[in-house]
Amino acid sequence: MEKIRKQQESWESGVLKKTLDRSPERQPQFTTESGIPVKRVYTPLDLGDRDYTDDLGFPGEYPYTRGVYPTMHRGRLWTMRNYAGFGTAEDTNKRYRYLLEQGMVGLSMAFDLPTQLGYDSDDPASEGAVGRVGVAIDSLEDMETVFTGIPLDKVSTSMTINATAPILLAFYVAVAEKQGVPQEKLMGTTQNDILKEFIARGTYIYPPKPSMKLALDIVEYCMEHVPRWNTLNIAGYHFREAGATAVQELAFTIADAIAYIEAARERGLAVDSFAPRLSYSLGCYMDLFEEIAKFRAGRRLFARVMKERFDAKNPQSCLFRIFSGSCGSTLVAQQPINNVVRVAMHALMGILGGHQAIHTACWDEGFAIPSEDSARIALRTQQILAYECGLCNTVDPLAGSYYVESLTNEIEERARECLKKIDDVGGMLAAIETGFAHREIQESSVAFQKKVDSGERIIVGLNKFQTPEEDGAGDEAFFEVNEEVEEIQKAKVQRLKERRDNALVAQALEQLEAAIDRGENLMPHIIAAARSYATIGEISKVMRGKWGEYKAPTYI
Amino acid sequence: MNTKRKRVLIGKIGLDGHDRGAKLVARSLCDAGVEVIYTGIRQSIDGVIATAVQEDVAVIGLSFLSGDHMALLPKVMKKLKETGLEDVKVIVGGIILPRHIDALTALGIHKIFLPGTPMEEIVDFIKTA
Lengths: 556, 129
Known about the structure:
- The complex is a heterodimer.
- By secondary structure, chain A is of the alpha/beta class.
- Chain A is about 50% helix and about 5% strand.
- Chain A has a 5-stranded parallel β-sheet with strand order 1-10-9-8-7.
- In chain A, helix 11 packs parallel to helix 13, helix 13 runs parallel beside helix 14 (about 340-350) and helix 20 (about 500-520) runs antiparallel to helix 21.
- Chain B contains 5 helices and 5 strands; from the N terminus they run E-H-E-H-E-H-E-H-E-H.
- In chain B, strands 2-1-3-4-5 form a 5-stranded parallel β-sheet, with helices on both faces.
- Helix content of chain B is about 40%, strand content about 20%.
- Chain B has helices at about 20-30, 45-55, 70-80, 100-105, 120-129; strands at about 5-10, 35-40, 55-65, 90-95, 110-115.
- In chain B, helix 1 links the parallel strand 1 (about 5-10) and strand 2 (about 35-40).
- At the A-B interface, helix 5 and helix 18 of A face helix 1 and helix 3 of B.
């Protein structure tokens, strides 16, 4: 170390000084995307006396910095899981079958906003939104259509669904029954992360307390009945999209995990019985090294939190299994085809960051539902990186980089400080109810926007290298959901209501209501309602009646 | 902006909850000394118009990211007329396909800001609207 220090000093006063005197650097300071200062050069001195075995160790072993599994992508590639879904169940079935034929491994369901908020397609609140940002699911009937010809014992399905997650899981379980697949065999994920909805993304319905109860109903039900299901996918992605820094994203994600785990323990569940089925979702922004360091720091910090706070004994409880996605807000509307390059970088971050599943965005999705062509390019991007670029031959290839290790340490430390701040305001629920989380993220969002507006943060095609003559380029290629979707879907749900056994539906809904009063786990009752072809609006109406609706704080 | 009414309402109608852009516009207006009312997400058309009346705003700015603008904006404009607020200027921002712009302009939307517009441009436009 002494030798290196001396060499560095002589380099600084010699070669470096001469160069700087002649030609200064491009900027007085360099920072990561999230504002962490970056030095000119990193050496073993930056790692100090940190112990390899404590901080890094081996993949598949505590603290999992290098990966959650021993062989990582050498053993099995990540699941290529691109987010898709639009229009009617028929439209979406066709797109899923296309993507599976093209080599996609797992499905990731996008639902329209009425489905996410518990309204039927014929509800006045749904106007203009049916089938827009995802598929419209009103009842079990639509779910059956989505999975026609797709055997549920063969594919895994991730659902970006939160406030209505128990209902969509119930539909899924009921479809499986019809296909003859027992629920024990089902593989997939319900996002089911309601806490982040109160801060970012906004698809919450009920107040925090009953919302948490519903989330934990899934956790508890699946422990016994759907053991391979990832019950809760705690998502930092949406914090990042709302403007959080990489450090805040990580800290708020882990703080959410802490809140769920504490609530589950209060319910009498043992940490090691449910924590192995929790998974995590983070975003990929544009700073490659910061993102990779974030993922590595996240694995280590989470494992340490599980040991320190929860005394987890089951190694599976400490695994920070990551599903990552391209952050949509990094996509640029100007010269949109350039987004293909940005998305390839996101996939690279996910691969080098050791992820279990990766979503790559489509170049046109800043404008519209992706076309079949752009959805295929997004998938091909992952396939090219997986098979042509030598990225998966060794585990955690950037380990040992003085820079990446320093940044990993720095992000872990800063995230710990941020966790402490959240603890000081009383934990994540308090951070939501007081608006603390909203304020923290909004200030970061404002700071980022100022950098973009001033040109300090260059975005190619937006604030530099513009080609104004191309404004509106690509318009003819943008896909639009069939305008008749809303009418088709309204007619479908109305026909269903005439055709089904309405006495059975009424009975199932009454039983659900009684179960709410008794404080029971609602999953079995929601599944019974699903089987009776009760609609998502009808089931949600029962809960709205009992719990009311909530309005989260906002901060500008 | 006329001198009698100086306030600006920034809002989100429909079911979409993505409000990073709307909040940034609201914040930038605040920082520029404009009095802003931000409605929060998931507002009804009637609710937004009632707020506009109550707060006596000169401009209503609405943000759309989920493709429901073509269904909801005609209703907003109709309601505005019925309420006698024809002189309130409606501006729209967010994800709007280029092919929709002509129809929205014909509807009486005063200005449409597409993704990537610098905040300063929006603020300057609203201040002189």
